[in-house]
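Ops channel
N.P.: pipeline sanity check, posting one input/output pair.
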């Protein structure tokens, strides 16, 4: 069969007769190769079969473009996606790509179903929703002239512990003097209609109910709204579901609290517009809801209070084509919320595809508004699409293998939230066309013992061999195997093939480019020597485990180049005259030289140092070699120039040139260049030495004297400053002691007054 050859998108089949095309030992599978290889092996062009995939556009109705002359259209007359049906013929490994256009139609019909939580906490919200029908109809006229609205309500499962099951509470679940209706799970109050006043009338008749726990049974209601298309009245238009609540939600598994363990079956159970199986089936899971909403093309708007925004935003991330709006405490902003959410949802298109067959993959590339491109997951969607905008998606489908059956596969691709879809029919190329024209009982298959199919014999039952020349019943395996052993060895077909009818058929390797060949499968084209991790160095062919090199290459791995251009030095010499060119690489004869062209000598003195003494003795009659100058330094031509500007410059030369600057014993500099031109060594030297000028004594002496004087003055100033500081400190100390001195006021003990008082003895005081 040719089927196995078609698993690669690059391999083709040569269906020339195998006896004429295949070499000794090659299996039938060797007919399969890339086109160029088959041509080199002399396969006639007309015998090469190379089936390719293709794309057929079966239905290609253009997208609807509205203008002033276009009247009102029915939903089925509006097209937003193009094409509608495509047939892809796939060959394994070869992707087929087609363009899908999406245009957001103007005045596209809308069905909106308002699903409201009627638990007691939503009492004030119900009052504001009673006039929603006519008000919303009026606002939606700016978006579409074909708008329908419906209404449904939900509370909770009618079992404990979600509600109280006492008889009184089943009649009126509210406390106090509140008049509430009996609890229920979900009720379809109004089928979708274009009569806004009918919406107002029926909603006005609704009453609040009640339950015990905070989370509500909204998921049960969403499931019924999605799957009960006939009862709700959904059309094949834009479907919006507004879910209004001020509480959380129960989901799969929570039903166990009420003894409900059966998973939700995802089917419609409405009788007289009431959900009758809430006590029997558990709440649906989020994944189950996502599947049903997607299957029925419903876009969800969660209108919830500020408190539960984080919960429903996380839920939005799990439900494609959904939005979350903040509901005021009494639902007064519900109309603005719905319009804003609708605009957000309708401005984004996201493609999804149905289940893919095994081995088939699909990739998307989006070309959105203003030419913005997206790939990967972003290739599935475009945002900020306005009415009348057209975007394109490039969709590539690729098969890696053929299916187990011959029937075509069908997948669908559609934008989320839209009813239109593209039907993609997949057909697979799993056999060669030539297989249908096989010649039964062909004389080329040994007297008609097989069918000549695609250039090879497909043997009848009981026959074997490349041309069906052997019968299984007439030959012994031992006799046949002897013909498949090389040099009477023990290995059959060198362990690289099978002995079929006394002839070796070599094994096929995973890599089609690697083949065994030879009478005993002793040869192959992949076990030759390698260089730089390439077979035969990339410069030859591997023939029976030996490299056959291309021109200008030799060696066991064709790694030796005979081209000597890589060994040419800048001076035009091979390896600078210091080595030989071997396999395009210089091998230096003198071990002290190295480099690509033997130009580097790490241990050699520099050119300038090497020739310094000879240049000095010949140009200035000085230096260490002035006595042996004629014998040692006659190997170059000396040319003297007046100044340094006259020396040859590197940019003027087509040969290596070195500029040198050296100093003699008298500290004088001399300049020269050294070059080899046409095998002649040339030295250009500046004839005058550049010696440093002698010192000027007077400025030196004056400078020394001035320095000494300045240093002396600086020392005197420092000494004077220190003395002033010292005197001021001593004076301050004296003043302080003077202020603190205390004087004793007593009389001097050795003091004697100069006045002597003598009392008259005769004086009697009279």
């Amino acid at each position: 069969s040719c089927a196995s050859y078609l698993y690669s998108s690059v391999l083709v089949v040569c269906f020339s007769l195998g006896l004429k095309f295949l070499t000794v030992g090659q299996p039938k599978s060797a007919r399969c190769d890339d086109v160029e290889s088959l041509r080199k092996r002399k396969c006639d062009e007309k015998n090469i079969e190379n089936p390719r995939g293709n794309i057929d556009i079966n239905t290609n109705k253009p997208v609807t473009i509205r203008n002033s002359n276009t009247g009102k259209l029915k939903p089925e007359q509006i097209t937003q996606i193009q094409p509608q049906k495509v047939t892809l013929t796939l060959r394994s490994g070869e992707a087929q790509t087609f363009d899908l256009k999406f245009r957001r139609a103007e005045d596209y019909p809308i069905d909106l179903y308002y699903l409201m939580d009627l638990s007691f906490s939503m009492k004030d919200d119900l009052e504001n929703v009673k006039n929603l029908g006519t008000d919303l109809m009026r606002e939606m006229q700016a978006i579409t002239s074909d708008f329908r609205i419906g209404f449904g309500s939900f509370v909770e499962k009618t079992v404990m512990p979600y509600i109280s099951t006492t008889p009184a509470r089943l009649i009126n679940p509210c406390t106090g003097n509140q008049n509430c209706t009996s609890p229920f799970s979900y009720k379809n109050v109004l089928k979708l209609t274009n009569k806004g006043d009918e919406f107002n009338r029926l909603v006005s008749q609704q009453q609040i109910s009640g339950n015990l726990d905070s989370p509500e049974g909204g998921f049960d209601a969403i499931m019924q709204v999605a799957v009960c298309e006939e009862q709700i009245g959904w059309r094949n238009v834009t479907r919006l579901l507004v879910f209004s609540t001020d509480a959380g939600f129960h989901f799969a598994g929570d039903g166990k609290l009420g003894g409900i363990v059966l998973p939700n079956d995802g089917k419609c159970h409405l009788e007289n517009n009431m959900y009758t199986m809430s006590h029997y089936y558990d709440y649906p899971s989020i994944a189950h809801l996502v599947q049903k909403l997607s299957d029925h093309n419903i876009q969800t708007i969660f209108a919830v209070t500020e408190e539960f925004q984080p919960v429903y935003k996380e839920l939005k991330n799990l439900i494609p084509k959904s939005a979350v709006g903040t509901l005021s405490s009494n639902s007064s902003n519900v109309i603005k919320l719905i319009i804003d959410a609708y605009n957000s949802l309708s401005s984004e298109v996201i493609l999804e595809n149905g289940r893919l067959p095994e081995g088939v993959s699909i990739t998307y590339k989006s070309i959105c508004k203003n030419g913005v491109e997206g790939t990967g997951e972003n290739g599935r969607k475009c945002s900020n699409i306005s009415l009348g905008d057209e975007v394109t998606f490039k969709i590539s489908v690729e098969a890696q293998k053929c299916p187990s059956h011959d029937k075509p596969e069908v997948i669908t691709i559609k934008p989320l939230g839209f009813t239109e879809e593209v039907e993609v029919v997949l057909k697979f190329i799993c056999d060669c066309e030539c297989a249908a024209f096989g010649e039964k009982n062909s004389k080329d298959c040994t007297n008609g013992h097989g069918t000549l199919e695609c250039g090879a014999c497909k043997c009848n039952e009981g026959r074997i061999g490349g041309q069906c020349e052997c019968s299984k019943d007439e030959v012994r395996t031992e006799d046949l195997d002897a013909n498949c052993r090389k040099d009477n060895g023990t290995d059959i077909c060198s362990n690289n093939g099978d002995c079929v009818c006394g002839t070796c058929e070599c094994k096929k390797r995973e890599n089609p480019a690697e083949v065994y060949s030879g009478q005993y499968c002793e040869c192959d084209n992949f076990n030759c020597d390698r260089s730089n991790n390439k077979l035969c160095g990339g410069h030859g062919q591997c023939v029976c485990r030996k490299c056959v090199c291309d021109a200008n290459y030799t060696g066991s791995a064709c790694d030796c180049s005979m081209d000597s251009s890589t060994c040419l030095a800048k001076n035009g010499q091979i390896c600078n005259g210091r080595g030989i060119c071997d396999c395009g690489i210089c091998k230096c004869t003198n071990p002290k030289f190295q480099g690509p062209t033997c130009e580097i000598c790490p241990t050699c003195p520099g050119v300038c140092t090497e020739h310094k003494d000879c240049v000095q003795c010949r140009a200035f009659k000085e230096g260490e070699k002035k006595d042996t100058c004629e014998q040692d330094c006659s190997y170059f031509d000396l040319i003297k120039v007046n100044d340094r500007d006259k020396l040859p410059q590197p940019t003027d030369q087509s040969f290596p040139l070195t500029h040198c600057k050296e100093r003699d014993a008298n500290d004088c500099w001399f300049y020269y260049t050294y070059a080899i031109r046409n095998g002649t060594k040339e030295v250009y030297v500046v004839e005058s030495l550049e010696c440093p000028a002698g010192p000027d004594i007077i400025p030196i002496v004056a400078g020394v004297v001035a320095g000494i004087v300045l240093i002396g003055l600086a020392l005197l100033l420092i000494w004077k400053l220190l003395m002033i500081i010292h005197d001021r400190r001593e004076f301050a100390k004296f003043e302080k002691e003077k202020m603190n001195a205390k004087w004793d006021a007593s009389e001097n003990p050795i003091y004697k007054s100069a006045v002597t008082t003598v009392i008259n003895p005769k004086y009697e005081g009279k």
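N.P.: looks fine end to end. Confidence is low (pLDDT under 50) at residues 3-7.
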